[in-house]
Structure formats: structure tokens, C-alpha cells
Amino acid sequence: EAILQAVNDYGQSIGKEDLPIIIGITNTYRPRPQSVYYTQTRRWDLGLNLFLADLKVLTSEPSPFARLKVMVHLDHVQWDEDEELLRWDMAQFSSIMYDASTLPLEKNIRKTATFRERYGHTIVIEGGC
Q: Which residues fall in a coiled-coil region (predicted)?
């Protein structure tokens, strides 16, 4: 919410209320598993669903942030540990950083290319080496 407030405040200061913003979250990415810590349950699925629900409420009428153009970035989706997440409807994200960096480079490239072929027509895909 603080990020939305800061963008909203800046937009008002320059006379533009519909600024674009990308808000990102990681899932089970070991250095920073944000969705895991979104709730006390430590369940990534609950955390990620709550994050998305919070954003929906905060960016819908009558919220003061309803005019912002919010895009959701899913960062460092792990090719192996996020296998269950990868079966979700990925269309709820604007962009995804698909991370197969634990694999040898050739396998990483193949996995990332397969992911891009599956979702690249609707979502911006970034690959991790």
C-alpha cells in the first residue's frame, strides 16, 4: 500500500493520476520468498492469493489508487520448486521472471524457451541465467 501511496502522491504532484507502476513479488525464491512470508501460515499459495486479492481491492473503486495502472510482476519463479504455481492461471500476472538458473545453461535455455512458448503471447517473460 505504501508503494501505491507514493506513486499516487507523485502523480498528484505532477497532475497525472493514472501513472503506471509494476509491483513485484517472489514466491519460493530462496533468498527472498515473499509470498511465503505474506501470512503467518508460511504457505506460499495463501500468501500469493492474499497479495493478489489485496492488490485487487487496493486498485478498484472506491480506492484512491483505482486510477493507477498497476501491473503485477512475478519474480524468480523457480522451474522446480514452483512447479505447483506454474499450473496456476498465469494471466493474472503482467510479467514473469522464469528462473532456471540452477540448471546447466543449455537446459536453462530449453526450459525458458518452452515456458515462453506457453505464455509469451500474453505475458512478458524474462529468463534467468
A: none
